[in-house]
Amino acid sequence: MEKRIRKSEMSQEIMILGKRIEKIIKQKGFKTREVAHDADMDVENLRKYIKGKQEMKISTMLKIVKALQIKVADLFEEIDIKL
After folding, report:
1. End-to-end CA separation in angstroms for the chain
2. Are 65 and 72 in contact (CB under 8 A)?
3. Over 90: is that where the pLDDT of 4 sits?
4. What global pTM score does this model have?
5. How far is CA 45 from the centre of its chain?
């Protein structure tokens, strides 16, 4: 089976969001698999979000926020989005 290739690169904001999730996981002393379990998702998908290789739905983001025991605003704290 051939590996799928993205038509376009992920935006910088998606990459930063993934790094922010990873940072919060480390700050709280959680394990990625524990967060994935608590968010009712596959650990590999969570890793893809963390690495910025896959965009997530809002519902998925809310599950991750709940599993991280944070507010939605905390997730975007260090993200500067310019319109």
Report:
1. 39
2. yes
3. no
4. 0.83
5. 9
